[in-house]
Amino acid sequence: MIIYDLSELPTHQLRALYAEIVLWRLYNEARAKGTTLQLRKLIVAEESQNYVRPGRVERPPSIGERIVNELRAYGYGCLLISPDPYQLPLHVSRDVAAVISIGYQALPEVILDVLTLYRYADIKKLVRTASRPRTYIYHDGRLHIRGIPKPYLGVIDLEASQTEEEVKPAEPSRGEVEVKAEARPEPSGGARTTSPLAQGF
C-alpha cells in the first residue's frame, strides 16, 4: 500500500500539480503492464475534484479523466472521493460501477432522477426519506437507502511506513548553451551614471 500525503504542501497549486504527477506515473505503469481482467491496483483519490476537473469538449481529457476512462482495462480501479459531484466531469458519474453519497443533496443528477421516481408511488415517502440524513448507494442499477454509518472508533493499521520522496534536480542537456551576461551599455545622450566628484573632476 502506498499513500501520498499532500497535506504538508503549502499551496493548492502544488498539491494539484503533485497529484497529477502521481497519476501520470500510475497511468504509464499500467500501460506498461498490459491489459488484464484482474484487479491489480485500486486508486483512492481523496478530494478528487481538485485534479479530476471537467473541461471543454474540444480539449483533450485530463490525466484524471484518462485514469477513470482507460485504466480499467489494465486492472486499475479508481475510487473518487469528492464533497460535490458537480465539480467532477459529468460522464464520470454515468460511467462508474457504484455511487455512495452521504445526503440527498450530494447525489449526481443521473442518480437523482432515479430517486425522484418515488414521487409517482408515494410523495410522502419521498419527502420523509429526503428530509433526514441518509446514505444512498447506487449499484448494479438499484438504489439502496440506508442510515448514516457510525464512526469507527478503533484504530486501523494500514501497515504503511512513512518515507520522504527524494526529488533529484534535472540535469542540463548536452545541447544547452550557457549564456553569459553581456556588459551593460552606457546610456547615450551625454548622461552620466556617476557623480563627477567620484571620478576625480
Describe this structure in words.
- The chain is α+β, with helices and mostly antiparallel strands and 201 residues long.
- Helix content is 27%, strand content 12%.
- It is globular.
- The termini are far apart.
Taking Cα atoms only, what radius of gyration do you get, to the nearest Å?
28 Å
Low-confidence stretches: 190-201
Overall pLDDT: 75
Beta-strand percentage range: 5-15%
Oligomeric state of the chains in view: single chain
How far the N terminus sits from the C terminus, by CA atoms, comes to: 77 Å
Strand line-up across the major sheet: 3-4-5
List the helices and strands and how they pair.
Layout: H1 12-33, E1 41-45, H2 63-70, E2 76-80, H3 90-95, E3 98-102, H4 109-115, H5 118-121, H6 123-130, E4 135-139, E5 142-146
Parallel strand pairs: 1-2
Antiparallel strand pairs: 3-4, 4-5
State the gist of this model:
The protein is α+β, with helices and mostly antiparallel strands.
For this entry, give a set of tags.
5 strands; alpha+beta; globular; three-stranded antiparallel sheet; 2 domains; two-stranded parallel sheet; 201 residues; single chain
